[in-house]
Amino acid sequence: MGRTRAKNRKARPPIDDLAERQGEKKSEPTIEALLEKAQELIVQCDYDLAGRFIDRVLKRAPDNAEAKEMLGVAQLETGLLDAAKQTFLSLLPPNPGAPSPTPPSAHLYLAQLSDSDPQMALVHYSAAVDILMLQLKGKERAVDITLANSDEEETKRTIVRALIGQVEIWMDPAYDLCFDPAAEANCEELLKAALQVDPENTEALQSLASVRMSQQRPEEAKGFLEKAWSTWQDLEADDPRLPPIASRLSLTKLFLELSLFTPALMVLQGIMASDDEEVEAWYLEGWCFFLMSEQAREQGGKLDELTWEELARDSRDCLETCKMLHVNQGHPDLPIREHVEELISKLEELGVKPSPEDGGQDDDDDENWEDEESDSSNSDVEMS
Predict the structure, then answer these.
(1) Band of the pLDDT at 1, cuts 50, 70, 90?
(2) 3-state DSSP call for residue 255?
(3) Are 288 and 265 in contact (CB under 8 A)?
C-alpha cells in the first residue's frame, strides 16, 4: 500500500494580520454614514435617536456644519428653542469654527426663532437672500445643466419664501412695523423682487393678492389669485408639483374673502383627495357653505340652483366632521374649534340639523325600493 497523503491545510494568518482584520470590522462608521443616518431619523421625526448619531459626529468633528445644523433642527423640533438658537448662531461669523460661506439655512432658522424681535428676523431673512442670490448666480454658470436646473429651482423657491417671510412681518398687525409709513412700499419692493426671481411662483402671487386686498383693490387681487391657481389647478392630487397643503389652504382663505366660492371648494376637494382628515380643510369647507347659505337667503333662497337649507345642511355636516377630527387629533388651533362651535350654534338656531348617519334614507325610501323590486319581479314573471 502506498503512503497516505496528508490533507492540505490552509496556513493560519499571522496573529498581527488577524488582529488588524478584526479591528477593521469593529471600526467606526464614517462621518458621512452617521450624517446620512441622522438625516433619515430626522425625516422619521425620531429626534432623540438622531441626536445620538449627531453627537457621535460632533465628538469626532466638532465644527462639522452639517451636523450642527441637524442638531439645531432636532432641538427646534423638540422645543429646545434657546438651545437651537445658540446652535444656529454658532454657524455664523465671527464664531470660531463657523463655516465659510455661511449656510443660508442658519439665517432662515434664526429668522423663524426671532418672533419677539421682528427687526432681527428681517436682518436674518435679508442675509439669507443675499447668500442664496450668490449661490443662484453660481448655479447659472454650472457645467452640469440638469443638476444645475434642479438646484436652481429649489434655490429660487427658497429665495421667494425668504422674501415673503419679510412681507408677512411687515404686514403682521402684531408688530408695530405694519404702522410704519414705509411698510407698504417695502412690501411692494419685496414682492417685486420675488416675482423677478420666479415670475410664476404661486406663493408670491398669493402674497401680492393679499397686499392688494389690504389696499382695497379686490379686482387686482382676484387676478393674481386666478393666475396663481391656473398654474396647478389641473394637476392630479398626487402630483409632486402641487403647492404644499398649507399654501393651498391660504389660497382658499383668500378666495373666501373675495366670495369666490366655486374655486375655493375646488381647491378644498383637491386637498381632501390627498388628506381627508385635514382639520382646517373641513373647517374652511363648512365656512364656505355657511357663507353660500347666507348669500342664498339674501338672494331669495337659492344660489347656483341650491336652496339655502341644502347649503346650510352641507355646512353643518362639514363643521361636525371638523369638530370630531379636531377633538380626536388634539388639534392645537383652538380658534378654529371656537369658530366651528359658533357656526354650529347659529345653524342650530336656524333649525339646521346634521344629515342622518344612514345617509338620509327614511321608511318611505325603503317602501319605494321594495315596490320597485316587486314591480321588477312581476315583470320577470310576465316575460316568462
Answers:
(1) very low
(2) helix
(3) yes
